[in-house]
Amino acid sequence: MTTLSDSARDGRRGEPSVSRSTSAGVNAALRILDLLAHRGPMQLSEIARELSVAKSTIHRIAAVLHERAWVIRDSEGRYELGIRALRLGSAAGQLPIVTAFRSVAAEFLDEHDETVALAVLDGSESLYIAMEETSQPVRYVTHIGSKTPAFASASGRVVLATYPAAIVESLWAGRPLVTPTGRRLNGTTELHRILDEVRAQGHAENDGETAHGLYAASVPIVNDSQTALAAFTTLIPASRVSEPERRQAILASLHELGSRFSELVSWLPSYSARRP
Question: 134-141: long-range contacts at Cβ-Cβ below 8 A with a sequence spacing of 24 or more?
């Protein structure tokens, strides 16, 4: 009786087997690109230390990335993202969720003239993928691609509130939860209490926890299965929302526009959702 080798069995379906070393190399390459996107230019030794990967391995992978224009190397030997990586980033503006964001963001700006952003969860961080800024000279300065700890930010909390408690525990149980401005949460016990409040209100508010003097408010953007895709959030100097009436008007707009936003993207799959 004729038998098939493992490689032949793989080839039967037109899917060549992938060696463990190839998989590890691809993983390391993606980690390098992700690190450079987050941290900016870095020396080879810094990348190796940050990723806990042998310098020789990083050197070999970085050489391939450099040859193919995914990274470039400056005169001081530091690596940063190249044209191919940047080209992928520029395509983000064509995503359906970003197109929908722009339509509702314009209305928010017309009514309140405050910065509004679109954020998604990237692991344990909240990542801005689109933004429309206020015309006012005093503003919170940030940019597309910047990240904040999800447990601390309004955009992160409003998405985390849709997750099962077990996933929140898996991300932060036993870890110190200290916000960027130094407030220490009482572990996941306090975080769960905050998320319970967010679920009850349908929005998250944050006053001075991710940046001093910054007020942020967020509502979730969900698809037709009620899975959170992103957060629709505004970032305002706290001095401009000191009056309760204005704060309530801003929250009302977020809820109204967030609902309309969700309708526009109700057909989208949950590409960033976490499952138990």
Answer: 134/109, 138/237, 138/240, 139/115, 139/237, 140/115, 140/211, 140/214, 140/235, 140/236, 140/237
How many of the other CB atoms lie within 10 Å of CB of 110? 8
Q: Where are the alpha helices (DSSP H) in 91-164?
A: 96-112, 154-160
pLDDT (tens digit, 9 = 90+) per residue, 189-218?
A: 999 999 999 999 999 999 999 999 999 999
Q: What is the mean pLDDT of residues 66-79?
A: 88
CA–CA separation, 243 and 41 (whole Å): 43
SS3 126: strand
- The whole-angstrom separation of Cα 135 and Cα 252 is 21
From residue 46, how far is each of 42, 56, 108, 142, 219 by CA, in Å? Answer: 6, 13, 42, 25, 38
Is residue 271 in a domain? no
- Predicted TM-score of the model (pTM): 0.72
Q: Evaluate if residue 274 carries a pLDDT over 60.
A: no
pLDDT, one tens digit per residue, over 42-61 is: 999 999 999 999 999 999 99
Which of residues 24, 55, 87 is at a domain's end?
87
> How far is Cα 57 from Cα 35, in angstroms, rounded to an integer?
16
Three-class SS state of 72: strand
Rounded Cα distance between 220 and 157, Å, is 9
User: What's the rounded Cα separation, in Å, for the pair 156 and 215?
Assistant: 14
**Listed residue (212, 225, 232) closest to 267, CA to CA:** 225
179 shares a domain with 72: no
Exposure string for 27-59, b = 16+ CB within 10 A, e = fewer:
ebbebbbebbbeeebbebeebbeeeebeeeebe
Whether residue 159 sits in one domain with residue 64: no
- d(CA 74, CA 256) in angstroms, rounded, equals 47
